[in-house]
Design the sequence.
């Protein structure tokens, strides 16, 4: 019995670390898309300013539109990460820090 519990823990750790890697890769793609496309940048920035419920509704609608228009899967996966409130908050903080640093550099 003891051995099987350890096996389950190892599997859970593997699953969790794989999920983190996928989310990290997706977020990097999202940030790249935001740098390269002002429409995506504005939409994501405005989404991140919202509370959870309205963000989820608008994000669902936007993802559906993107899927219907055959948008790259990497982009839709990256945007889907923003359903997670913790991730959305961290991305928002990161974007604001980036804008703040850019403004300070341009002075």
Sequence:
């Amino acid at each position: 019995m003891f051995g099987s519990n350890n096996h389950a823990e190892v599997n859970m750790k593997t699953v969790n670390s794989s999920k983190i890697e996928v989310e990290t890769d997706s977020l990097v793609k999202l940030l790249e898309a935001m740098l390269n496309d002002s429409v995506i940048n504005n939409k994501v920035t405005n989404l991140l300013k919202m509370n959870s419920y309205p963000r989820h509704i608008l994000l669902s609608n936007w993802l559906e539109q993107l899927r219907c228009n055959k948008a790259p899967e990497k982009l839709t996966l990256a945007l889907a990460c923003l359903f997670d409130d913790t991730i959305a908050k961290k991305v928002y903080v990161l974007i604001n820090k980036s804008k703040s640093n850019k403004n300070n550099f341009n002075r």
The chain has a mean pLDDT of 77.
